[in-house]
């Protein structure tokens, strides 16, 4: 027996009738505003080549670690859903079998953000009108294949249909950005910009660090055989990224530790790393030092700086060894923002040319640390609920824990942080609905007036990301 797939017009709003009416009115103000996607991982080749999307499995399943991590937690091997192995070992290659596996387990996503996003994608983007089950999996698969083959569903057409104003990708310093160049030279009006992500050369323990340094030298035209050359190479690449439209940098770190090193100390640590003799302690100190250097560079060139901290990556060594990075094995850890960010904020937090956006998935620090810090330092803003927190409940907790101390104007709206292109409108719609719900509560309790709430939700959905990411 099949059941209709329905997206209720009041989904995610409070069940109280008075608040629901207010939320409905607030949401109506922003539901059609353009989407700004200032931080994400969509492959720019998608929009440079503009060829039809692959089959449903390669489009919706294999790239989505949110999805297959849930399946893995219930005993479904990653090989069974086609996740490629590093060693080239055998994995399922039949997209129909992969899709059937997902459909057989689709009930696992009930109540989760992944389930909410997938329902939105299936219904609004792909025109599916039945809930996905094991029984109707092949019929829905065939329907999606047919829909994806239509000209109006090519990547650029969907970009326009989704009303995306700007889409940022995430790119290592040595990237050629050739796909961005192709997009810019194609005559298409969609705006796709890179973001500067130097983790592969600032973390001395990053896999292949030595090879990454060689690539940085080649891309920048500056020898990185010395620490001074390395710094110059990074500065040169930032200039190049800005020439290609980049407005932001991004730094994924285990700890938000920041502390500058004397020049001679940094040179010694860098030299040890070039010889393959760096220790974990060296790496920790150098990463903290390079965050300070990146803040300095942002004060000089104006690029918005993002720090993502509080993740123990690759927690499952078996999965990491077989499948590599970003396979759903990254787990939140506790962080100390107050002490770790103090050196950076003391040196640059009052600088008028710095915008520092700090993210974490340790939500225990939202009210205790991030809101007070951002509520004081002019340069600092609180990044939105991210990763494990970019959910219905996580977003509500985030708003409630940060607004009373920092207000909304020390936050930066929403970013989707996604590899799954089709999920972008679903994620932004969820965020706008949750903000409407939160503000409706404040209106109903006479904390703010309705006209104020209307201005606030427009700022959250559009103006705050536009201003903070310099779009």
Describe this structure in words.
By secondary structure, the chain is of the alpha/beta class. The protein is built from 20 helices and 9 strands. The chain has a 4-stranded parallel β-sheet with strand order 4-5-8-9, with helices on one face. It has a 3-stranded parallel β-sheet with strand order 1-2-3. A two-stranded antiparallel sheet has the order 6-7. Helix 17 links the parallel strand 8 (356-360) and strand 9 (380-382).
Feature tags:
471 residues, TIM Barrel, 3-stranded parallel beta sheet, alpha/beta, uronate isomerase, domain 2, chain A, 20 helices, 2 domains, 4-stranded parallel beta sheet
Please summarize what this structure is.
The chain has 471 residues and is an alpha/beta fold. The protein contains 20 helices and 9 strands. α1 crosses α19 (424-444) and α17 packs across α18 (392-406).
């Amino acid at each position: 027996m099949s059941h209709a797939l329905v997206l209720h017009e009041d989904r995610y709003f409070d069940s109280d009738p008075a608040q629901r009416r207010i939320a409905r009115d607030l949401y109506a103000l922003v539901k059609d505003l353009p989407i700004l996607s200032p931080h994400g991982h969509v492959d720019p080749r998608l929009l440079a080549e503009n060829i039809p999307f692959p089959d449903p499995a390669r489009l919706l399943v294999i790239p989505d670690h949110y999805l297959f991590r849930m399946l893995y937690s219930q005993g479904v091997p990653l090989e069974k859903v086609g996740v490629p192995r590093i060693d080239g070992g055998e994995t399922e290659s039949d997209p129909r079998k992969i899709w059937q596996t997902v459909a057989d387990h689709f009930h696992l996503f009930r109540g989760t953000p992944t389930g909410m996003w997938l329902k939105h994608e299936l219904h609004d983007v792909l025109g599916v009108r039945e809930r996905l089950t094991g029984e109707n999996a092949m019929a829905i698969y065939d329907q999606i294949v047919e829909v994806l083959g239509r000209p109006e569903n090519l990547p650029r057409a969907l970009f326009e249909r989704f009303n995306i104003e700007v889409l940022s990708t995430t790119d290592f310093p040595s990237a050629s950005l050739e796909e961005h160049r192709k997009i810019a030279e194609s005559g298409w009006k969609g705006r796709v910009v890179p973001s500067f992500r130097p983790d592969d050369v600032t973390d001395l323990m990053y896999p292949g660090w030595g090879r990454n340094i060689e690539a940085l030298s080649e891309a920048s035209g500056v020898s990185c055989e010395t620490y001074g050359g390395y710094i110059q190479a990074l500065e040169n690449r930032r200039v190049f990224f800005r020439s290609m439209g980049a407005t932001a940098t991004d730094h994924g770190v285990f700890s938000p530790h920041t502390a500058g090193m004397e020049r001679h100390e940094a040179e010694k640590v860098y030299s040890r790393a070039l010889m393959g003799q760096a220790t974990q302690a060296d790496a920790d100190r150098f990463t903290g030092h390079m965050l300070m250097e990146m803040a300095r560079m942002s004060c000089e060139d104006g690029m918005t700086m993002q720090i993502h901290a509080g993740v123990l990556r690759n927690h499952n060594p078996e999965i990491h060894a077989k499948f590599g990075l970003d396979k759903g094995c990254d787990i939140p850890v506790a962080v100390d923002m107050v002490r770790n960010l103090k050196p950076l904020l003391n040196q640059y937090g009052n600088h008028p040319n710095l915008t520092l956006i700090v993210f974490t998935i340790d939500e225990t620090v939202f009210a205790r640390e991030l809101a007070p810090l951002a509520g004081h330092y002019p340069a600092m803003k609180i990044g939105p609920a991210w990763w494990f927190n970019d959910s219905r409940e996580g977003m509500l907790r985030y708003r409630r824990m940060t607004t009373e101390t920092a207000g909304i104007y020390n936050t930066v709206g929403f970013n989707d942080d996604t590899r799954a292109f089709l999920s972008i409108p679903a994620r932004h719609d969820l965020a706008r609905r949750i903000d409407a719900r939160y503000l409706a509560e404040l209106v109903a309790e006479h904390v703010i007036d309705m006209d104020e709430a209307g201005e606030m939700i427009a700022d959250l959905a559009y103006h705050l990301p536009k201003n903070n990411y310099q779009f």
